[in-house]
Every structure is written in C-alpha cells, then in structure tokens.
C-alpha cells in the first residue's frame, strides 16, 4: 500500500513539473480505455485489446484488483493483447489468507485443490497533459461451458486486496471484521452478470462486512452500498429479484440502494438457502420480508462460493416498498437473554421509548377489556403481529423470541394513528422477518415436533427457555378472546394454503435445484457441508410433517379456552361463477397454496367460529349454500363453529343484464315458491311481469319462449330436484 501511494505521488510531481497541470484534475470520460470484449463468460481463450481515442495516450492496467498507478508494482503499461484464459491452474491467492477467522467451528480451512479463477482487468489512460481517465474494470471467465457452468447470477467484486485483507485497513481480517460504520466501508467495483451472461450492471460501490456472530466465520457476508461518491450511478438499477413487488404500493422494484450478499448465516453448514426459503414462503404475509436470490461470488476473479443476494432492512427499504419519507422511519431491533435491549437502527431513542410506553400500557391495563384492546390496535398493527408470530412458530425458530425481533413504523406528522393512510403509513408498529436460520429443522434449532407455540407464549423455566420480556406481549394478547380467535383462525388459514406440504416442497425443490450443480465446488472452497442432500431432505421432512404437529399444539395450548379438536371443512363451488372466502383467504388460484378452488379442503378448530363468504364473479349472483342450516342458507356471509367435519357448497346464479338472478322474479334475491307463483300467474294470463329484462330472468331453458316448461323448471328448482339455472 505504501509503495503505491509513493509511486502515485512521484507520478503526480513529475507530470506537474512537465506539464504544469495537476494530475488529480477532473477525469476526462472521453479518455476511458475501450475494451475489445465485454466482461463475462467465454468458452475459449482470447486476446483482449485495449484502446483509446485520443492519440499519444498511454494505457496502464492491473490484474490484481488494484487501481492502476503508473510506476507502482503490479501496474503494467499496455503494449499489446492480453491473454484471457482459464486461470484455475494458477495458485490460489486470497483464499489462502489465514487470519480471517477466530471461530473454532467455521474458521479458515485450506480449499480442496485449485479454485476456478477468472481475470480482472482495471485500466486507466493518461494523456500528454497528464489528465487521467476514470478507471474501467472488467471481469472475464473462461470455461468450456461458459455461463452454463453456474446457471445463476454471477457477481464479481474487484478491489485492492488491502481493502479486505490488510492488517490495518482490511475489513475481512481478524481484529477488523467486527468493526462497523462508514469508516469501515471500502471502495469496490461490482459487476452483476445474469444467468444468460447479460451484464446487468457494472459500477463502483462501497462494501462492508455484514452480520452478527457470523462475522467471525471464514466465509463472511457483505453489504454493498450504491453511492454518488463512488459512481454517477446512485442506485443498483436492475430487476435483481424477478417479480418482486413493493409491499405497500404493489409496484415492481428494479432499483436498490443497498444489497446484502449473505453466506446463509447459521445455515451455511447445511443447505445454503434456509432463510431465503422461509422468507419467500411468507413473502405475501402481512409482514416485511427480504427478497432472496442465489448467486455465485468472485473476489478479484477467485471463486468465493454461493451467496444469497438479499434486501436489507433500513430506511431505504421502507422508502422503496412504501413510497414514504425515509426520514420518518423508525426501525428497532430487540433482543436480550435476560433483559430486553432495544437497538435503534433507524430513528431516535424517542422511538424506542414510544414502543416501551405501549408495552407498559399493556402491563398496566386489562387487555380483556375491549377499550384497552382497541387502543393497543391503534399503536400496534396486530394483524402484522399475528402473521409475524405464525411465521416463527410454524418454522420452529428457537433463535426467537429472545433474539431477532424487528419492528418498524412510519412516524405520522401528529404521531397519531391514521386509519385512512396508505398501507404502512398509518403510524402503527409493524413487524419484519429476519434471520430465521435456526428454524425448519436446523441441527441445533427447533425440530419438526418442537412446540414453538407454547415456547413463545408461556414463561418457561430452565435452560433454553425464553426470558419473560420476550413472551410478555404474545402471552398477554392471548388473554383477549378476539385476538386469540383471530390468531388461531389466521394460523389455520396459512396451514391450509401457504404451508401446504405440496407448495413448500415445490419451493424446496426449486431452490435446491438452483444450486445443486455447484454445491461440490462450493464445498471445495469452504469444506463445511458434510451431506447436502441429507440436509435438503430434512427440509422436506419438516414440510411434510410440521402441519400436523402445529395443529396438535394449537389444540393442546388452547383447550382450556374452548378449543376442542380440529375439523375438516370442504368448500366447493363452480369457479366459473364465483369463489369462496374463508376468514382471511380467498379460495382461488391467486392465493398461494390453493390448487383446486372448486373442491378445497382445510383444517379448522372446534370452538373457534369461522366466517365464510360467497363472492360471485361478474355476471353471477349468490343464490344459496348447500350443507348448512336452513336459517342461514340464503345469507352470502355465514359464521360457523366447526365442531365436526363439514362439506359446504356455494351455489351461484346467472344474473340478468339488470343484475337480477335468473328465476328471481320478485327481485328479493331469493328464489322460492313466491317466484314460482308469479311465473305461473303470468303464463295463465292472470297477471303481467313488470320486468325490464323479462326473458333473461324467466326463460329458464333459454329457448326464446316463456311458457309452462319454464314454470316446470322453476318448480323443480325450488324443490331442489335440479340445482342450477338455466336448465336445458
């Protein structure tokens, strides 16, 4: 590092003396070296040529990730083609640096054999006046299979090795990797290649070490920052997570200020996608989640392994997802093995006190009182909290609730609840999912039969029990009947849709399939996954067996509250005419986990009433239920206590052009004997039908006539001999 600085100063003095110009003058973009080949993957070696438009201009380049400094060691003056080839046969470099971890379980281990290596070129041009161009950086990888070697996005980070591995300033080495803040951010160049070898973006950025305890591991997580001070590109602009929609606005997200390159945390010895799987499973819940995408990372051209590209919770995340003023975001992280400790990630200490005040209010008032409960719901988004609880409980995450609690809110102008505000901007605290690696059957986490519901809602004693502060809010809210029933029903809704084993296994297969072909290469680099296929099968076993355990846990936990048993509810309808909503979920193909909306089955709980609603499609109208008591048969919304297994069908009728159902002659939204009498009187010429669209309502076989045949059809329908109209 000192040699480079000295060389740069000497170079500046000489050029200043010769030209009278400052070498540090503003860069001339027109001077930028032109590369003959775009960065990316190639199947054959080739000669790379550099050029510049301005005559009598010298080009300097490096191959080690450092910024070219004429006269410095490692900087070469360009004189002809540069051979770009597969460099795997060259000795491993950065991966051989040992002082990167003090952890006894995931410390430094020498890679198994030679790692795959690309070539990174950084080049500048200097003209006769001493003006230096911007640095141009390109990464090249040569393999017979080209980009098909990985079939994933490839990220190349290029930087002076001292920025990562120098004992004084390197952020990756012992003594430094625990450091945080802007002063421990280093400049890098980032290239993001899509799986089809398309260059998504190439720009300068900042990098920091990311994570908590996992900073100690040899493989570390990184955080990338797009900043104007590094590059004219102020954002990472690309659809990094295909299909990602903003939580609040529903708009597509195609730009990011910060990105996390996560090494899979506590799961890095097991599957390399556990947290991403869990968060993607619940990304449609009423909680915030961090998008996930598997990728391959290279540092200065050297293979660094599988990394998970993730969003990061900060003011920018909420700005992008909710279209709000990021200066009004409060973000808290709460943890503590004995006492509660609140860390303010965004906002002020006043925001932390605001949350404490709400908890104290709950301690001092009776949550069973409706007025208390309603007031709490103006401070805490309890629907968000319920989905947050269900997520961790289903996943059996035992690194919670005493750790990894994350919540945020938008601070309204008057600091009061605004029920009419857009989603996320009403002033209430909402919850976010973070670091769930201990869940889903992790070796030393919660297993498939773990009663996480009782674990998180009772004050346990002994080793491993969560402290009282961490279970207080959930335990207390469960004393309120409305909250408890909503929690149970919402849990059942998710068990019946999001957590259906078929859906979960499909996602496991997709995520494992994305990286299966490079697990061996990753393991040669880090040597820490003993049996990857076994670990993936543990996920599948969890997916298949977890629902039945959770159902039993719910019955056992709430038996004293009147929950007697689980019961199956079958809901059926003609999906061309309408669909059914049960509690909070629509039984249609738009709901994740619903495969057959025409004949759907779900599990609910005796003692916890469910609400079922029939919703007609355009051109149809609800007529009646089948399989329910007569007194509610014609109500489009019904509430039932599922003490036993039930089979319920929603029957819809075609409406006339005026919106009335076929057969509903008197317009009371019910088809019965009164309609039959009116039709019979019309056919006998006793009375007329005062209908604007007579044929649409009374031509029940659609033959273009209204006669005794239609009267007979209506009679059979009223007597339940036939079940649908029209009838031909």
Q: Which stretches are low in confidence, meaning pLDDT under 50 for 5 or more residues running? A: 1-27
Assembly type of the shown chains?
Answer: single chain
**Whole-angstrom Rg:** 32 Å
Give the proportion of residues in helices. 25-40%
In what range is the share of β-strand residues?
15-25%
Please state the overall shape, judged from the principal axes of the Cα atoms: elongated
What count of helical segments does DSSP give? 16
Summed up, the domain count is: 4
What structural class results from the helix and strand content? alpha+beta
Q: What average pLDDT do the residues reach?
A: 94
Question: How many strand elements?
Answer: 30
Major beta sheet summary: 7 strands, mixed, barrel
Please list the strands of the largest sheet in the order they lie side by side. 10-11-12-13-16-18-17
CA-CA gap between termini: 89 Å
Q: What is the secondary structure topology, with strand pairs?
A:
Blueprint: H1 2-19, E1 34-35, E2 40-42, E3 46-48, E4 50-51, E5 58-62, E6 75-77, E7 82-84, E8 119-126, E9 136-142, E10 154-158, H2 162-165, E11 186-193, E12 199-210, E13 221-225, E14 236-237, E15 255-256, E16 258-262, H3 274-281, E17 292-299, E18 302-310, H4 315-322, E19 329-335, E20 341-346, H5 349-364, H6 370-377, H7 382-394, E21 405-410, E22 430-432, H8 452-457, H9 468-477, H10 481-495, H11 501-515, H12 519-526, H13 532-557, E23 566-573, E24 578-582, E25 585-587, E26 599-605, E27 610-616, E28 620-626, E29 637-640, E30 646-654, H14 673-683, H15 694-698, H16 708-718
Parallel strand pairs: 2-9, 10-17, 23-30
Antiparallel strand pairs: 1-4, 3-7, 5-6, 5-8, 8-9, 10-11, 11-12, 12-13, 13-16, 14-15, 16-18, 17-18, 19-20, 19-21, 21-22, 23-26, 24-25, 24-27, 27-29, 28-30
Helix pairs in contact: 7-10, 11-13, 14-16
């Amino acid at each position: 590092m000192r040699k480079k600085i000295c060389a740069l100063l000497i170079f500046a003095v000489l050029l200043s003396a010769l030209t009278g110009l400052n070498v540090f003058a503003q860069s001339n973009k027109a001077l930028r070296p032109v590369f003959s080949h775009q960065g990316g993957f190639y199947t054959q070696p080739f000669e790379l040529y550099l050029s510049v438009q301005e005559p009598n201009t010298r080009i300097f380049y490096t191959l080690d990730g450092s910024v070219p400094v004429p006269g410095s060691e490692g900087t070469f003056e360009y004189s002809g083609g540069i051979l770009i080839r597969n460099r795997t046969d060259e000795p491993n470099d950065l991966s051989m640096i040992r002082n990167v971890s003090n952890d006894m379980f995931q410390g430094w281990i020498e890679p198994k054999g030679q790692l795959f290596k690309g070539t990174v070129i950084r080049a500048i041009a200097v003209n006769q006046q001493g003006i230096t161009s911007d640095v141009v950086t390109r990464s090249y990888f040569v393999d017979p299979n080209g980009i098909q070697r990985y079939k994933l996005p490839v990220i190349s980070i290029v930087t002076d090795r001292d920025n990562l591995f120098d004992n004084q300033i390197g952020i990756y080495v012992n003594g430094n990797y625990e450091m945080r803040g802007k002063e421990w951010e280093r400049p890098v160049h980032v290239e993001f290649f899509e799986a089809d070898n398309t260059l998504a973006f190439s720009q300068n950025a900042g990098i920091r070490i990311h994570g908590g305890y996992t900073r100690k591991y040899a493989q570390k997580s990184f955080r990338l920052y797009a900043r104007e001070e590094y590059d004219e590109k102020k954002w990472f602009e690309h659809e990094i997570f295909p299909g990602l929609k903003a939580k609040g606005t529903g708009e597509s997200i195609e730009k990011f200020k910060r990105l996390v390159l996560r090494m899979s945390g506590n799961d890095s010895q097991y599957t390399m996608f556990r947290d991403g799987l869990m968060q993607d499973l619940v990304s449609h819940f009423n909680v915030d989640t961090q998008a996930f995408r598997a990728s391959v990372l290279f540092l200065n051209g050297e293979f660094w392994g599988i990394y998970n590209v993730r969003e990061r919770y900060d003011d920018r995340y909420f700005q992008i997802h909710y279209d709000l003023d990021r200066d009004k975001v409060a973000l808290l992280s709460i943890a503590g093995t004995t006492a509660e400790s609140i860390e303010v990630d965004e906002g002020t200490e006043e925001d932390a006190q605001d949350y404490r005040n709400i908890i104290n209010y709950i301690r001092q008032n009776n949550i069973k009182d409706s007025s208390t409960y309603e007031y709490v719901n103006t401070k805490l988004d309890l629907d968000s909290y319920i989905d947050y609880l269900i997520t961790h409980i289903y996943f059996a995450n035992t690194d919670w609730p005493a750790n990894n609690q994350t919540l945020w809110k938008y601070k309204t102008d008057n600091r009061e609840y605004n029920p009419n505000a857009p989603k996320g901007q009403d002033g209430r605290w909402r919850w976010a999912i973070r670091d769930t690696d201990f869940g889903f059957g992790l070796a030393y986490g919660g297993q498939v039969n773990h009663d996480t519901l009782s674990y998180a809602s009772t004050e346990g004693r002994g080793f491993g029990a969560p402290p009282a502060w961490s279970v207080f809010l959930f335990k207390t809210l469960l004393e309120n009947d409305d909250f408890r029933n909503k929690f149970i029903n919402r849990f059942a809704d998710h068990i019946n849709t999001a957590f259906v084993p078929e859906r979960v296994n499909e996602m496991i297969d997709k995520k494992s399939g994305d990286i299966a072909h490079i697990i061996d290469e990753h393991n040669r680099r880090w040597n820490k996954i003993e049996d990857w296929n076994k670990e993936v099968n543990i996920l599948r076993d969890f997916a298949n067996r977890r629902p039945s355990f959770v159902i039993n846990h719910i019955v056992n936990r709430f038996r004293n509250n009147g929950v007697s048993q689980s019961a199956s509810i079958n809901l059926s309808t003609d999906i061309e005419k309408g669909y059914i909503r049960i509690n909070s979920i629509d039984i249609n193909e738009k709901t994740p986990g619903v495969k057959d909306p025409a004949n759907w089955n779900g599990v609910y709980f005796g003692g916890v009433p469910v609400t079922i609603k029939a919703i007609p499609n355009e051109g149809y109208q609800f007529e009646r239920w089948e399989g329910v008591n007569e007194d509610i048969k014609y109500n489009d919304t019904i509430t039932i206590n599922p003490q036993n297994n039930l089979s319920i069908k929603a029957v819809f009728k075609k409406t006339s052009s005026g919106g009335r159902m076929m057969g509903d002659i008197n317009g009371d939204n019910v088809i019965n004997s009164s309609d039959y009498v009116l039709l019979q009187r019309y056919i006998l010429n006793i009375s007329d039908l005062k209908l604007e669209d007579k044929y649409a309502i009374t031509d029940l076989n659609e033959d273009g006539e209204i006669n005794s045949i239609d009267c007979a059809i209506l009679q059979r329908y009223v007597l339940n001999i036939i079940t649908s109209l029209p009838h031909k």
